[in-house]
Amino acid sequence: MSEDFQYKNMLYDFYGGLLTEKQRAYFENHYMEDLSLAEIAGQYGVTPQAVADLIKRVSILLENYEKTLGLLKKHNRNLTLSQNISDILSEISNPAYAERAAAIRRILEEMV
After folding, report:
1. I need a surface site. Which of 21, 26, 92, 105 has the fewest CB within 10 A?
2. Taking the domains of the chain in order of start, what are their residue ranges?
3. CA–CA distance, 24 with 18 (Å, rounded to integer)
């Protein structure tokens, strides 16, 4: 699976609810069900070029949502920060801090 494919799917996870039903259907058929443009076109009675055009517009739309709102960027940053905190907690070996470290780990699990 390519990085671009994964990125588009992650954008869809965050912003797919903002798309129209038709946009969601074409995108899901192509990226999640791995249908070809011709297969999707056959399902909806349109040309493969029409499907390609719509999918391209949806990709641009999702990228614009991310540029404006930045939810995926913030999510990825929070994952990195959570992992950094978890790594630091693992390095703390003083038994006096074990209870506090466990409490922080529980909070991190809820965040992710």
Report:
1. 21
2. 3-69, 74-111
3. 9
